[in-house]
Every structure is written in structure tokens, then in C-alpha cells.
Write a structure and sequence with these properties.
Radius of gyration: 26 Å
Distance between the termini: 47 Å
Number of strands: 36
Structural class: mainly beta
Largest sheet: 22 strands, antiparallel, barrel
Number of helices: 7
């Protein structure tokens, strides 16, 4: 706790230094009920501390806003971004999905909320959800490539910045304005709704939003277990006189093989309130948000001491609607996160600086992993089933496992005045995370991570060239206390799951604390050449270092979510990544093109290796370190046929590929497969529509003990009608997902053998403003 006290003192000192100045307004940003401009040459990327659009950046950046974001919103952040070039998603059922950028995820991809880390527990394990509802996000910025320079060790693979208006930076045009959306679907009987209100007057602005989602177990086109799905498909082919084909790639099944995926429900709700005082030169504001979700993990679990595969083989599977035995155990997660934020901006704060921005945050995150035992009726969920723990129809097999994370955050950015035609920003960032665990089945002991960093970014224009240079120096301390497993925790919201009292974490003089300290530095050089009004090319070279995470260093226990016993390596060294990006872009009224080539050479790459051995009857996986590399490309094209007699058409196609391997030529585990996307969008008057076909290819370069994953096709469609209601815009929309009802299994998911993606789904709803 001494580190937290020191961190708080420093943060308060930084904040106090801002108050003698008169706070004032910055330029208004979207989020007060208006649609944001989607043209890439006009959207300023807020993840950068200096004003820069995506086209002006030397590193690849995508921005999702407006109608494009509306059409792609899913249950999770990963699902929302899964169709973006170079971005895939982890998949642990519909309740947990995190972005994978160019084959990298977990502790190498930083999820940010307006520039501050999300402060949840999603990085250490794929079954942990990101603590945000995609329905409430105004825009999403994706930095494809090392963002370590700006956001530290956790962004060597990239960063995803989520922008909302929880702390207003401008006074809205009206005293009250709002946005709403209500939608449902057929695949899981989802019912969701969001409401957002913005208002104010004079020097005061306020914000409120809330969301609710209830989705049951979702329908799948075939059997949940992959082996059963393949058996059924082959049997069906045999009955029709087809040849048996072990290399069959597209898993398509007739309707009678379909069913529902047990324990794939999701429930969530959130609420946010924020307010700001806005003056002539800046602003200061604060917000509070609570996010709660409960979701099932759709795969049978077993305890250490019970081999999962042997357990499954002991049971008969008599029909395809119910792949698991009555005695299988399932788990669900009950999560809650509370977030407090303060943000202040000031124009011309002191000589030498044109703008100062201070952000302070506190995240209180916890979730319980609760294991259930099926009753005599199995795991069936009724249509209007209440998924609270009292109504699951299961008995808890063990006390819940607790993950409790407290995170303190602060970030100060100062825009500098031009010096020798160079201008940019410098900054200071401080973070402290206290990660506590408790329960019978934890794979990482309580630990604490503290980081402090300074960074600088400068750029200048020379003719048609824009040059940028930057550097970051960061200190990271990671400590673990293996003896401190018996935390007691008390939270009124979770008394039903955990009745013990949980005191603040502390170390005594006799505790066996293990500490590691790392000093990392990163640097980058970028250049953008504006060839003419249509074409630009860019080059970005970076050197990024990453300190190993507490999980990679100190994991030592059963991780049931991944069906493995995970073992850390305490003597891991820091990673060093040398990366280059080469980009070519064309932007015009008729044709947009983008091509990106990249390569990352990583010294001391940390990866989780399947050893092929067993421990406590679970697969033993160890964090190893070796030199490796990632390389690939992303290609995009959009042909715009506007002003025709039949409306405006956009024809688009995209392709992305990433390869990851060690220096000895062996493949790295869980690398995203190559992907091709073709789509057409149409609009005329109040109508718009679109169709998209996506081919995810077979991953035939698996790591040792991993196995290949078949490819699959997905076809999606959208139809929307916008109209005026009461002087405000409104839109009815209808979407079809996986219209071919094809079986699709995510190679990067630990559940690919047990949980395919949802089958054919029709989503419908109404959104609008008032």
C-alpha cells in the first residue's frame, strides 16, 4: 500500500499544479447527438498527443465512427473489431472477446479509454471480459503496430482507444439532447437497449448513459464438439454416397444437426454520470461509471486431478443438441467494475507550452469464477431463463475464485511550442495495479505492478515530407507474494458468492515477496511523403521494449479456463522488438487504396508453449523465451460509384495475413489465419444496405501440439431506413449474420474444439436522437 500512497501523492501534486490556471474550452468533439464525419482526411486521431489524421500518420491507424461503427457493434469489443484489417478477436464465448492485432494479443495489446488503460483483468486470460459496453462507444481508434512510445510496455503489439463523451469538453448546443438504441436478435433471443443524455448551459455540461443486455444460449449450425460435428458431417455425406474427405474445409451442416451452445448466455448492465466546468481557456470534469456482466463459459471444465479428455471419453453422446454429459461441470463469470475519472485541459498553461491535458483514473475491478454442476435435467436453459446464480439450475462445486484488481492511473501531456520548426508533445504517465486472487483454483498469486514513464514526440514538415521522432523511458516494478493467498474480501454486491471478509492487501516482514524491476526504452522514426493530392507513402521504424507481465513471470497453478496448468518463468528478460511498417495510400472521391507491409523481429519473445506433458492431469504450458518474428500485410480497396440512377455504391475488398515463427522455423501458437473480405454498400435517400462475404482460411501452420483449424465462410447483410421523427433523426435497421449458417471455429480460441461461432442470426432494432 505504500506504493499506492506514493502514487496518489504524485497524482494529486500534478493535479494541484493545474488549478491556479483558468480552465477553458477545447474544440467540440462528436458525441452530443450528431454523427461524426467519417472521411479519413478529416478525423483527428485522439490517441496521438498532437493533432494528426489517419492519413497523416506514419503508422497504420483505423478509426471506426458513425454508421460503420453502428453496423459492427457486437457483444464484445473483439467482435466489434473482428472485421478490421489486421485485427482478429479472441473468443471465449459471446461474453469475452479481446482484440488481436497482427497476431499479438494479451499483454501486448493495450485497451484504452480516452487514453487511459481500461484497468480490467482481460490481458492475463482470454476468458476475462473487457470492462466496457461497445454500445456506448462514440468512436474506436486502432493503432496497428507498436504503440509503446505513447502507451508503454502493454502496447508493443498495438493499442485500441475507445472514445466516449463521459467527461464533456464542450457545452452542447441544447440544454438537453439524447441518443437511444433498442435491438434484439434471433440466435440468442438477445434484448438490448442503451440511453444517452447530454446537456448543460453556460459554463456547465453534463452526461448520463445507461445500457442493458440479456442474451440466452445461442444457436449453432452443428454439434458443439468439433469431433461430433465432423462425425455427423461425414456420416451424412456417406448416406448420400459422397466420398469421405478428411480435409474438408467448410463445415456446413444440415439443419437437423443444429442446436444451442450450452452456457453461452450473457447479461450486462452499465451506468455512467459525468460533468464538466468549461471556461474560456479550458475545462475540468469528472465521471463515474459502473459496469456489470455475467456470462457463461461454453465448455465443460474439470478440476486438477481429473483429466479432461479421459473424462469426456467415459460418456456417451447420444444426440447433437446436447454434446456434454449430465455430470459435466460448467463455469460462469460474475464481473463488476467501477471507474472514477478526472480530466482537465488548459490552453497556454505556461510559457513554452500551448496546451496541457491531465487525466486521472481509478479502476476497481473484480470478478468471481463460479463452477457449477449439472442437475438431473442437464444444462438446458429455458427461453426466458433468468441467469442469476440462484436460477441456473446448477449447484456450485467449489467456492468461487476471485480476481480483484485495483488500478491507479495518471497521464499528463504537454503540447510544445515550435522550436526550430519542430513541434509536438512531452508527457508523464504513472500507473499502479494491485492484482489480488483468492480461491481454490488460481493460477497466479497476488501481485503488484508499478510503472512510471516519460515520453516525447516531435514532428516537422519539410516540403512534401513530414518527419516524426519520439522516445519513451519507462520503469516497471513487478512483485508477487506467494504466501498471500488467503485474502478475505467483502462486497455487498457479491455476498451471495463469497461470504468471507477481505482486508486490504499488505505485506508483513515475514512474507516471501519476489520482486522484479525493469527499465525499458523505446524510440521511433516515421516519415510521410505526400506524393501528390491523391497518393501518400509512409515508413515507420521503431524499437520497442516490453517488461514481462506478472503472469508470465509468476504463474504457477491450474488455469481451468484454458484447460491447462500454467507455469511462469521468474528469470524472463525484457522483450525488444524492432519493427518497420511500409504503407501506400490513395484517397479520392472515386477510389481509396491502402497497402501495408510489416515485420517485427523480437528478441527474447515470451510465449506460452504447450509442453506435451501433464501436471495434475492438466496440460502443462510454460512461458518460454526465444527470438522470433512476425510479418505480414494488409490490403484494402474501396471503389466509389456515386450518383448513379440506382444510388451510391461502394465496392470494397480487403485481405490480411500474419505469420509468426521462432528463429528455428517452428510456428508460434494461436496465430490468426489469413482472411479475405469482399463487400458492397449501397445508399439512396433514406435507405442504405450492404452485403459482406468473408473467407477465413484454414490455419495450416499450427504450433506443436496445437492442431489445424478448418477455414470457413461468413456472409453478413445490413438494411436500414432513416427517417425524421419529432424533428430528430431515427433509423430502423435489420441485419443478417452468418446467413449461410456455416460452422465457424476461431483458431485463436482455447474453446475452438467446444464452441463454434453462432449460427444464422437476424438482428433488428431502432436507434435515433431526441
Amino acid at each position: 500500500m505504500k506504493r499506492n500512497v506514493l502514487f496518489t501523492t504524485i497524482s494529486l501534486a500534478l493535479g494541484a499544479s493545474m488549478f491556479p490556471f483558468h480552465v477553458a474550452a477545447q474544440s467540440a468533439q462528436a458525441g452530443n447527438g450528431e454523427r461524426e464525419d467519417q472521411e479519413p482526411d478529416r478525423i483527428v486521431v485522439q490517441a496521438f498527443p498532437i493533432e494528426r489524421t489517419a492519413l497523416e500518420s506514419a503508422e497504420p491507424v483505423d478509426v471506426l465512427v458513425g454508421e460503420e461503427l453502428d453496423d459492427r457493434r457486437g457483444l464484445t469489443l473483439g467482435e466489434t473489431l473482428d472485421s478490421q484489417p489486421g485485427v482478429h478477436s479472441t473468443y471465449y464465448g459471446p461474453g469475452a472477446g479481446r482484440p488481436i492485432i497482427r497476431g499479438l494479443s494479451g499483454p501486448r495489446v493495450q485497451v484504452l479509454e480516452d487514453g487511459l488503460p481500461s484497468g480490467d483483468a482481460s490481458a492475463p486470460s482470454d476468458d476475462h471480459a473487457v470492462g466496457v459496453d461497445p454500445m456506448l462507444i462514440d468512436r474506436i481508434e486502432i493503432l496497428r503496430g507498436p504503440a509503446t512510445l505513447l502507451y508503454g510496455s502493454a502496447a508493443t503489439g498495438g493499442a485500441v482507444n475507445l472514445i466516449d463523451n463521459r467527461i464533456p469538453t464542450s457545452v452542447p448546443e441544447r440544454a438537453l439532447m439524447g441518443l437511444y438504441e433498442a435491438r434484439g436478435d434471433t440466435v440468442a433471443d438477445e434484448r438490448s437497449g442503451v440511453l444517452r443524455l447530454d446537456g448543460g448551459g453556460g459554463n456547465f455540461a453534463w452526461h448520463f448513459d445507461g445500457s442493458y443486455r440479456d442474451a440466452g444460449d445461442y444457436a449453432i449450425p452443428g454439434a458443439a464438439r468439433r469431433e461430433l460435428a465432423e462425425e455427423h458431417h461425414h456420416d451424412h455425406e456417406h448416406e448420400e454416397g459422397h466420398d469421405h474427405d478428411n480435409d474438408h474445409d467448410d463445415s456446413e451442416h444440415d439443419d437437423h444437426a443444429g442446436g444451442t451452445l450450452e452456457n453461452s448466455f450473457v447479461e450486462s448492465q452499465s451506468a455512467t454520470v459525468g460533468a464538466s466546468w468549461i471556461g474560456n481557456r479550458g475545462y475540468i470534469g469528472a465521471s463515474f461509471r459502473t459496469f456489470e456482466t455475467e456470462y457463461g463459459i461454453p465448455a465443460p471444465h474439470s478440476h486438477a486431478g481429473h483429466d479432461h479428455d479421459e473424462y469426456e471419453e467415459q460418456h456417451e453422446h447420444d444426440d447433437h443438441d446436447h454434446d456434454h454429459s449430465e455430470e459435466d461441470s460448467f463455469a460462469f463469470i460474475d464481473m463488476e467494475q467501477k471507474s472514477w475519472d478526472v480530466k482537465a485541459g488548459l490552453e497556454d498553461p505556461v510559457p513554452g507550452f500551448t496546451r496541457a491535458t491531465l487525466k486521472l483514473g481509478y479502476r476497481d475491478y473484480q470478478h468471481f469464477e463460479i463452477e457449477m454442476e449439472g442437475d438431473e435435467h442437464g444444462h438446458e436453459h429455458e427461453e426466458d431463463h433468468d441467469h442469476s446464480d440462484d436460477d441456473h439450475g446448477h449447484e456450485h462445486m467449489h467456492d468461487p475464485t476471485l480476481f480483484d484488481v485495483e488500478t491507479f492511473l495518471s497521464r499528463l501531456e504537454l503540447r510544445t511550442v515550435p522550436v526550430a520548426e519542430w513541434s509536438g508533445a512531452i508527457g508523464l504517465q504513472i500507473e499502479s495495479q494491485d492484482f489480488k486472487t483468492d480461491g481454490e483454483e488460481i493460477f497466479i498469486a497476488p501481485n503488484q505492478t508499478d510503472t512510471m514513464a516519460i515520453f516525447a514526440l516531435q514532428e516537422r514538415s519539410i516540403g512534401d515530407f513530414t518527419l516524426s521522432v519520439g522516445a519513451r523511458l519507462e520503469s516497471t516494478d513487478v512483485s508477487v507474494d506467494p504466501s498471500d493467498h488467503d485474502h478475505e474480501h467483502h462486497d455487498d454486491h457479491h455476498d451471495e458468492h463469497h461470504d468471507d471478509h477481505h482486508d486490504d492487501h499488505h505485506h508483513d516482514e515475514h512474507s516471501d515477496v519476489d520482486e522484479r524491476s525493469f527499465t525499458t526504452w523505446s524510440a521511433s522514426f516515421g516519415a510521410v511523403w505526400e506524393i501528390n493530392d491523391l497518393w501518400r507513402t509512409s515508413l515507420n521504424i521503431s524499437r520497442a521494449q516490453r517488461a514481462p507481465s506478472a503472469t508470465e513471470l509468476f504463474a504457477d497453478g491450474p488455469h481451468l479456463a484454458t484447460f491447462s496448468f500454467e507455469k511462469g518463468t521468474p528469470d524472463l528478460r525484457k522483450e525488444t522488438t524492432t519493427a518497420w511498417d511500409l504503407g501506400l495510400r490513395r484517397h479520392s472521391d472515386h477510389l481509396d487504396l491502402e497497402l501495408n507491409l510489416f515485420q517485427k523481429d523480437v528478441n527474447n519473445l515470451v510465449y506460452l508453449e504447450d509442453t506435451g506433458e501433464m501436471r495434475d492431469d492438466l496440460t502443462l504450458r510454460e512461458f518460454k523465451q526465444d527470438n522470433g518474428q512476425f510479418y505480414g500485410l494488409e490490403a484494402l480497396a474501396k471503389w466509389k460509384l456515386h450518383g448513379t440512377n440506382f444510388g451510391d455504391f461502394d465496392l470494397r475488398t480487403g485481405y490480411d495475413l500474419v505469420c509468426g515463427e521462432l528463429d528455428d522455423g517452428s510456428n508460434l501458437p494461436r496465430i490468426s489465419p489469413e482472411r479475405l473480405t469482399i463487400g458492397v454498400d449501397w445508399g439512396t435517400g433514406p435507405w442504405r444496405a450492404g452485403v459482406e462475404w468473408q473467407r477465413v482460411f484454414r490455419q495450416d501452420r499450427p504450433a506443436e501440439f496445437e492442431g489445424e483449424t478448418p477455414g470457413y465462410n461468413l456472409t453478413h447483410a445490413t438494411l436500414a431506413y432513416q427517417f425524421t421523427f419529432g424533428g430528430n433523426w431515427a433509423e430502423l435497421f435489420f441485419q443478417g449474420r452468418n446467413l449461410g449458417d456455416n460452422e465457424a471455429r476461431v483458431h485463436t480460441s482455447a474453446l475452438r474444439e467446444y464452441a463454434p461461432l453462432p449460427g444464422r442470426n437476424f438482428r433488428f432494432g431502432l436507434r435515433g436522437s431526441f
